[in-house]
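At this stage, I wrote out one protein, both as residues and as discrete backbone shape codes, and that material follows here.
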Amino acid sequence: MSETALTFKIKALKKLGQKAYAQSVYDRFQKEYQQLYGEKYKENSLEE
């Protein structure tokens, strides 16, 4: 699970105009992060 890769993917999707897909990717990452680490992901890559 790479936070850096997530950030780049989100930025790329937003530049391509795929904001809904970017949100979906981010939501899935947050869910997986919480399952693995038992805490919520603190950063919000969608706001950049």
